[in-house]
TrEMBL record:
This is Cation transporter. Its main location: membrane. InterPro entries: Cation_efflux (IPR002524), Cation_efflux_CTD (IPR027470), Cation_efflux_CTD_sf (IPR036837), Cation_efflux_TM (IPR058533), Cation_efflux_TMD_sf (IPR027469), CDF_Transporter (IPR050291). Residues 14-206 form the Cation efflux protein transmembrane domain. Pfam families: Cation_efflux (PF01545), ZT_dimer (PF16916). Keywords: Ion transport, Iron, Iron transport, Membrane, Transmembrane, Transmembrane helix, Transport, Zinc, Zinc transport. Belongs to the cation diffusion facilitator (CDF) transporter (TC 2.A.4) family. FieF subfamily. Residues 213-290 form the Cation efflux protein cytoplasmic domain.
Length: 310
């Protein structure tokens, strides 16, 4: 029996959290043993991932809850708020790494960490990259943007370990190449900030009630043309709440059609949309007569044509 969305989210997040704790302890311990300040800082960064793990574990209980009287459109915005939190925290981490790199440019390291620090950094990169790819796959199964955002937090940890590995190996073999640490860290900062923007921007767009999907209107019009009983569809509006989309529009039918038949056509069309577009979970359809007063896509020109439509 497959997991429910909330169980899948929590199982994936718990696995990631356990890995974060193990890697953080490994990097801090090895960093102290080898004298690698960069590895110690990277271990502290791994502990920061626990903050987003906690946000996912708590938030998923709310955004997966069904609609109720207080939240008739569901609780999807809790996922949006979680995405904003993760995006902001990811941006702070990126800025912190970049600031430390800029501040230390030109400063020669006073210690030469052992290769044990290098292998600890490599282990972190491999584990976190595997976690990133696995979490992305799981997020796509249930279309969870928050889980996808947390996947990118895993990758940010892998990316932050990369300059550590480069710096440790460079310092070990060629002590004069200490500046590679700052250069690699700045590149990592750019990648982390890009990921933060890609998480934050859709959430901000959603909060401002922007159109959920620019392709939805074309899809609805395409489906409508396949049904000969539907004369016109217009005033299509969509909005996203978390990982789901809510949709409403006007549907025009023959003005002499019975209410019962118009209702059947509407319900069949609604079912078709819900089946074809996975993210859409609710559709509100306003039925109207296909008359000169209501039609918009192919308006009446006046004269005999208007009389024919009445």
């Amino acid at each position: 029996m497959s997991d429910t969305p909330v169980k899948l989210i929590q199982r994936v997040t718990w696995i990631g959290a356990i890995a974060n704790v193990a890697l953080a302890l490994l990097k801090i311990t090895v960093g102290k043993l080898t004298g690698s300040q960069a590895l110690i800082a990277d271990g502290v960064h791994s502990f920061s991932d626990l903050v987003t793990d906690t946000a996912i574990l708590i938030g998923s209980r709310y955004w997966t809850a069904p609609a109720d009287k207080e939240h008739p459109y569901g609780h999807g915005r809790f996922e949006t708020l979680t995405n904003i939190f993760i995006g902001v925290l990811l941006a702070i981490v990126g800025i912190g790494i970049g600031w430390n790199s800029i501040d230390s440019i030109g400063q020669e390291s006073t210690t030469t960490p052992g290769m044990l620090a290098f292998w600890a950094a490599i282990a972190s990169i491999l584990v976190k990259e595997v976690l990133y790819r696995w979490t992305v796959i799981q997020s796509k199964k249930i279309n969870s943007r928050a889980l996808y955002a947390n996947a990118w937090h895993h990758r940010s940890d892998a990316l932050s370990s990369l300059p550590v590995a480069i710096a440790v190996s460079a310092n070990y073999f060629v002590p004069d190449l200490y500046y590679l640490d700052q250069i690699a860290a700045l590149l990592v900062t750019a990648m982390i900030l890009k990921a933060a923007f890609e998480i934050l921007w859709p959430a901000i767009v959603e909060i401002t009630e922007a159109e959920a999907d620019s392709e939805i209107e074309a899809k609805i019009q395409h489906y409508a043309k396949q049904d000969s009983d539907i004369r016109e569809v217009h005033a299509i509006r969509s909005r996203r709440t978390g990982s789901i989309i809510l949709l409403d529009f006007h549907l025009l039918v023959d003005p002499v059609m019975s209410v019962d038949k118009a209702h059947t056509i509407t319900e069949n069309f609604k079912s078709h949309i819900l089946k074809q577009i996975d993210e859409v979970v609710d559709v509100i359809i306003h039925v109207e007569p296909y008359t000169c007063a209501e039609r918009l896509i192919n308006p009446c020109c006046g004269g005999d044509e208007c009389h024919d439509e009445m």
